[in-house]
Design a protein that fits this description.
The complex is a heterodimer of chains A (about 220) and B (about 325). In chain A, about 30% of the residues lie in helices and about 25% in strands. With about 220 residues, chain A is an alpha/beta fold. In chain B, strands 10-9-8-13-12-11 form a 6-stranded antiparallel sheet. A 5-stranded parallel sheet of chain B has the order 2-1-3-6-7, with helices on both faces. In chain B, helix 2 packs parallel to helix 3 and helix 6 runs antiparallel to helix 9. Classes of the chains: A alpha/beta (about 220), B alpha/beta (about 325).
């Protein structure tokens, strides 16, 4: 199988393949399984893929540990973290790069670009990028740099045939803000958790399952 | 993508020359300089599509330069092309400028730089506002209505004065949103001429299918920290997109007020009528210009062509379904 000519696959999730260069916004309540969903969407389809996390809610080591818990491996040549938490520290052996604050969108963008390039230089043929979550960036920064950051991130992913998956809790931001941020993405994966049952629904992408699809996360 | 104008900023003449040559070989015009001050002056001319800068410069850093650029020409793309690794870059003083970063020591760095520059300009990845998904088509449509001789200023002056009186607001205006700024075709109550796109509320209105109302600007996180709106004394806003017969949104008919206020359904319906009238005036002028006629713009509407698409029978540039509103 040559995944490089096909789309990104999501094993065990009710999602069809997604074209290279796609950026997805994943929305759902913070405690409703959205983190696990994002981690599973970032599982590498094969060893030639890379995965890059931008974390603002949990630190780098915790992110890698949680990634391993859903089946992710941690090859530091192909997997890395930009840690934007205020307690984050560099961990070179684990390819964790600390920025120090989600306010510093310039620093986050520089670390992202550097890590993205290094994953390709290490042999990754394409890279899945996940942001967990966008909420701190939106809450603690003014809107103009947030738009710049999002355009920069999604633009580089689009150009490199990568996959972008950015999570946000809709309850953490105003409806109008969420609506305008969504313009930067190609599609949206909504997650809901009701009566002990979790489901997702894809909006804006062709050839995806229609309506709510039950998912175990 | 060829034909960009790029500023190449590096204090090392040899490195600057090598970078410049790579960009020139890619088909672009390049102006070179070695300091923050020189580069800031270059960007101030407004002709630069992208700035490629080393981080360490004799009179500051590439981020100092980017900070100046964000003040003077906010949409201009900036790329740090540098030997400095991220841990050597002090971003804390410029945490909101956001740049592209490319390490100079990577394999085929200058080829990668060329692709990156072309992509960031083509995709407009450093603008500080949301972009419509059909932005290129939207701008192409706008160009059809933005020609010499299509001046509708007198008509729009009358319309906006009428609207200002009808709604009892401080300002009524007709604005078109181009690539980097909004230009006011008429503005009753103020003498505004332009506003940068990242500061313009109409930047958000053109994303809407219908009206955008902001009753209290300070309570809306999209605008609450917008200093330019504060300078213009805008505390409330209502705008209806100007949509061409083919569906492209080129601007908006808007009201602003210096105190928070609401707008009734009847007022919104009338605002839609004003927008319909403004768009119809633009459409009539475009068609007259296209047909070469110089007669009274109210007597001829030749069907058969559309501004932003192939010729087809005339679609309505006229009224929306707005039953229930009042006449202005």
């Amino acid at each position: 199988m040559s995944v490089q000519r096909g789309g990104y696959t999501f094993e065990g999730l009710p999602l069809a393949d997604v074209s290279p260069g796609t950026n997805l916004l994943v929305t759902g309540p913070a405690l409703g399984g959205i983190r696990t969903l994002l981690l599973r969407m970032l599982l590498r389809g094969d060893r030639r893929e890379g995965t890059l996390f931008i974390t603002a809610d949990t630190d780098g080591p915790t992110t890698l540990s949680d990634y391993a818990a859903v089946g992710g491996d941690h090859d530091p040549m192909r997997v890395g973290v930009v840690d934007c938490t205020e307690t984050g520290v560099d961990a070179v052996d684990h390819n964790v790069h600390a920025v120090g604050s989600p306010n510093d969108l310039t620093g986050v963008g520089i670390e992202f670009s550097s890590l993205y390039e290094s994953l390709y230089a290490n042999g990754a043929e394409r890279v899945r990028t996940g942001v967990y979550t966008l909420s701190p960036f939106v809450v603690y920064s003014s809107v103009k740099p947030v738009y710049r950051f999002l355009h920069t991130l999604t633009g580089r992913i689009r150009t490199a045939d990568g996959l972008g998956v950015c999570a946000i809790d809709p309850d953490a931001v105003e409806t109008e803000t969420l609506s305008s941020l969504a313009q930067a993405f190609d599609g949206r994966v909504a997650l809901r958790s009701e009566n002990g049952e979790t489901a997702i629904r894809v909006e804006g992408l062709a050839d995806q399952p229609e309506g709510w699809q039950r998912v175990e996360v | 993508m060829a034909g960009l104008t790029i500023a190449c900023v590096d204090g090392d003449p040899e490195a600057r020359r090598e970078t410049r040559d790579a960009l020139v070989d890619g088909g672009h015009d390049v102006v070179s300089c070695g300091t923050v001050a020189e580069a800031a002056d270059l960007v101030g001319t407004g002709d630069i599509d992208c700035v490629v800068t080393e981080y360490s410069l004799p009179d500051g850093t590439g981020l100092d330069l980017t900070g100046l650029i964000r003040e003077r020409s906010p949409d201009t793309s900036c790329v740090l092309f540098t030997d400095a690794t991220p841990d050597r870059i002090d971003s804390a003083r410029h945490e909101d400028v956001v740049v592209e970063y490319l390490p100079r020591d990577m394999p085929d760095a200058r080829e990668s730089l060329l692709r990156l520059v072309e992509n960031v300009v083509a995709q407009r990845t450093q603008v500080g506002y949301p972009l419509p998904p059909d932005e290129d088509e939207r701008l192409a449509a706008l160009a059809q209505y933005d020609r010499p001789g299509l001046d509708a200023a007198e008509t729009f002056d009358r319309l906006t004065k009428l609207a200002r009186a009808r709604f009892g607001v401080d300002v009524a205006f007709v604005g078109v949103v181009d690539a980097h700024e909004e230009r006011f075709l008429a503005c009753a109550g103020e003498d505004w001429e332009t506003i940068s796109r990242e500061d313009s509320m109409c930047t958000h209105t053109i994303l809407e299918t219908d009206v955008m109302v902001v009753e209290d600007v300070d309570a809306d996180p999209r605008f609450a920290d917008n200093e330019r709106l504060e300078e213009l004394d805008i505390e409330a806003y209502a705008g209806v997109p100007l949509r061409t017969p083919r569906g492209a949104t080129i601007g908006a008919f808007c009201l602003t007020h210096s105190e928070p206020r609401s707008f009734s359904e009847a007022e919104i319906a009338d605002l839609r009528r004003f927008a319909d009238e403004a768009m119809e005036q633009l459409e009539l002028r475009r068609r007259l210009d296209e047909s070469g006629e110089e007669s009274d713009p109210t007597i001829s509407r030749s069907p058969g062509t559309d501004a932003d698409g192939p010729a087809e029978p005339e679609p309505a540039a006229g009224p929306r379904d707005d039953s229930g509103g009042e006449e202005p």
